[in-house]
Amino acid sequence: MPRPFFLVLTRRWIWAGVVFLAGLVVLAIYGSFPLAVFTLNALPSEILYDVMLDPGHGGIDPGGIGRDEIYEKHFTLDISLRMQSILENAGLKVGLTRDSDRDVSHLVKDGTRHRRDLLGRFKLMNQARVGMSIHTNAARSSTERGAIVFYMKGSYIDQIYAHLTFDELERVQEMNHDRIIPRDTLLLLKAKPPVLLVEIGFITNEEDLQKLLDERFRENVAQALSRAILKFLTWWEGEQSEA
Ligand SMILES: [Zn+2]
């Protein structure tokens, strides 16, 4: 008995729907950060630097904006450049994801500017033994202030690195939390080397902003963060030679 016409049609439509949805899933995965991260981390990467410093934002992306159009991107670059010279003087090979007021989106071909910028920084992180991304924070509440150290949730090595950094930073800046903060949602922390994301202070808090505008404070922060990186590398080398 021939099948009723409407049943055949329905079946076709169901198949068409399945194929369409599968296509959407494939597209979503292809465009997603997890796949890009997996691919970048699966590729062998040449280690060209001891440290990769990542001054947050840059170019078209100002980052956090304080009063009188004060931009986060300038503070992050200034502190990173200071760290570069301190760490180079200590004998390390230092890379920067950017050394001028620009973004890093030119390193990756596909996707939105934001996506290309983030993955560009990620790619560069994988060329170093250790990385640090430098930021300043912004909040709705102007009373929120102090520094924060984010590290990759569940990573023992990164946790040690974060502790050392917290202890050094605490000597020169008030901390927003009394502990280091684990995160598994910050893309850069998923790079192959241990990477921290450090928020130096809140650009939206007058006290923090005054500090950030003070060159001596920025130099002290750069010194503290550089000391932490040096301490961490020394500790890590010790661990690796014992293993
Ligand atoms: Zn930022």
Q: Please, could you describe this protein's structure?
A:
The protein has helices spanning 5-31, 33-42, 72-89, 113-125, 156-170, 206-213, 215-242; strands at residues 49-55, 65-66, 70-71, 94-96, 128-137, 148-152, 181-183, 195-202. The chain has 243 residues and is α/β, with parallel strands linked by helices. It has two domains: 5-31; 46-242, Aminopeptidase, CATH 3.40.630.40. It has a six-stranded mixed beta sheet, sandwiched between helices. A two-stranded antiparallel sheet has the order 2-3. α2 runs parallel beside α4 and α3 (72-89) crosses α7 (215-242). The model has no long low-confidence stretch (mean pLDDT 93). The protein binds zinc ion. Residues 56-57, 63-64, 72, 135 line the site of zinc ion.
List the helices and strands and how they pair.
Blueprint: H1 5-31, H2 33-42, E1 49-55, E2 65-66, E3 70-71, H3 72-89, E4 94-96, H4 113-125, E5 128-137, E6 148-152, H5 156-170, E7 181-183, E8 195-202, H6 206-213, H7 215-242
Parallel strand pairs: 1-4, 1-5, 5-8, 6-7
Antiparallel strand pairs: 2-3, 6-8
Helix pairs in contact: 2-4, 3-7, 5-7
The chain binds zinc ion.
Q: What's the short version?
A:
This protein has seven helices and eight strands; from the N terminus they run H-H-E-E-E-H-E-H-E-E-H-E-E-H-H.
